[in-house]
Amino acid sequence: MINVKKPGLQTTVQDRGRIGYYEIGMPPSGAMDKYAFTVANLLVGNDPNAAVLEITYLGPVLEFGKAMKISLTGGEIPPRINGQPVPMWTTLEVREGDQLSFDFVKGGARVYLAIEGGIAVPLIMGSRSTYTLIGIGGFEGRAVAEGDVIYTADMRKKEIPVGTRIDPDLIPAYSKTHEIRVVVGLCSYRLTEESKQTFLDTEWTVTPEANRTGYRHRGEKLHFVEREQPFGAGSNPSNVTDLGYPIGSIQVPDGVEPIVLLHDAVTGGGYATIATVISSDLDRMAQVKTNEKVRFVSVSLEEALEARRTVKQKLGVIAQFIEIGM
Amino acid sequence: MAEKTAIVSPLPGIFYRRPSPDSPEFVQAGEAIKVGDVIGLIEVMKNYYEIKAEEDGVVDQFVVGDEELVDAGQELVTLTK
């Protein structure tokens, strides 16, 4: 078991997500950075869908109630055990009574803490992920709080030697300016040609409204093609007749402050979605902080699929490396 | 010479010097504060995080104004001990 001494800003239990209920309006939740999440579980020999802790901006203070293996991946929020710095992207071992704490965030935004066996919380609709907006899943449907006791599950598949490390070339670098790839559409036809270009040319600033639901960006105003609004669409030119929102889709209510919808977002509605962040770059979006700069880069669907294959390949290399033990 | 230290923000977000718009500021320059005293709030991700003094001291000056954007690691307030 693990005692929560301090919870951090927002520390939640997440797995791959609550997949398969999108059409009834249930977003998947799940780890925001799937790459870091997957590697964290690999490093402790867990089932790939074991639940981990997702830590955002400010780390918690946790005390381990027994000896266990752990791993920390994702953004650079430097961890310490009993005050001593410990490496990330490495299989670590803690003893009973050890305390894990974190320095201030240096790069990226989210860290994943995997625990040998995974975190024991009830499966809700097939997932252990926390969806805080409606209070289901994870630890009692909420972020962990001071005094909580977290229990470990039995989802370990392999014994991984302590000190197993990931090749540094396979560890993402986190900067303060980000190029996020998008496929333009589904409703980009609603923007004027000039505004389509403005969207791609602008260096956007991430506002404080940036969380698991979505990231809001400040920059230029975008304009929509004038038209008589069709039946079922709202009166604002940024409205269309309701549609399903892809995860990663970008909407621009009233033409100001584009919002990238993420894993806890509403699943559909009546705003024109002008582009969609490609799946491999959702992981990178998860590591963007408030006040940082984002530029959206248009790619084709083929390029998006190629990027997805590249990420899969990297994860395959990591899995194989950990499997054979060196 | 009095020793100077600073309270830094652990988070990026908006800095507030008041608990709510109608309330007085948490602390003023020149005021003595103790460990655990709240000196301001950082709003990010629809959370308000309390910034607390980690040592006793006297508020020298606010480096960041009310409702200004800050980065993680940025100095908010300087203290003299």
Can you give a write-up of this model?
The complex is a heterodimer of chains A (326) and B (81). With 326 residues, chain A is an alpha+beta fold. Chain A folds into 2 domains: 2-172, no CATH class; 177-306, Cyclophilin, CATH 2.40.100. Chain A has 4 helices and 20 strands. In chain A, 48% of the residues are buried. Chain B has a single domain (4-80), classed as Beta Barrel (OB fold (Dihydrolipoamide Acetyltransferase, E2P)). Chain B has strands at residues 4-8, 13-16, 32-33, 38-44, 47-52, 57-62, 68-70, 75-80. In chain B, strand 4 (38-44) and strand 5 form a beta hairpin. Chain B starts with a strand and ends with a strand. In chain B, 28% of the residues are buried. Chain A binds chain B through residues 9-10, 56-58, 104-105, 208-211, 289-291, and chain B through 8, 10-14, 43-47, 49, 69-73.
Summarize the structure.
Chain A: InterPro entries: CT_A_B, Cyclophilin-like_dom_sf, PxpC. Chain A: Residues 23-315 form the Carboxyltransferase domain. The complex is a heterodimer of chains A (326) and B (81). With 326 residues, chain A is α+β, with helices and mostly antiparallel strands.
Q: Which word captures the global form of chain B?
A: globular
Total of DSSP H or I helical runs spanning 4+ residues of chain A: 4
* Order of adjacent strands in the largest pleated sheet of chain A: 12-19-16-17-14-13-20
Largest sheet, strands/sense/barrel of chain B: 4 strands, antiparallel
**Overall strand count of chain B:** 8
What is the level-2 CATH architecture name of chain B?
Beta Barrel
Order of helices and strands of chain A: EEHEEEEEEEEEEHEEEEEEEHEH
Distance between the termini of chain B: 10 Å
Approximately how much helix is present in the residues of chain A? 10-25%
Task: List the uncertain runs of chain B.
Answer: none
Spans of chain A of at least 5 consecutive residues whose pLDDT stays below 50 are: none
Q: How would you describe the shape of chain A? A: elongated
What does the main sheet of chain A amount to? 7 strands, mixed, barrel
Estimate what percentage of residues of chain A fall within beta strands.
25-35%
Number of domains of chain B: 1
Oligomer: heterodimer
User: What is the rounded distance between the termini of chain A?
Assistant: 30 Å
Q: What is the count of structural domains of chain A?
A: 2
Whole-number mean pLDDT of chain A: 96
CA-based gyration radius of chain A? 20 Å
Query: What is the C-alpha radius of gyration of chain B, as a whole number of Å?
Result: 12 Å
Keywords (chain A): ATP-binding, Hydrolase, Nucleotide-binding, Transferase
Organism (chain A): Brevibacillus invocatus
InterPro entries (chain A): CT_A_B, Cyclophilin-like_dom_sf, PxpC
Protein name (chain A): Biotin-dependent carboxyltransferase
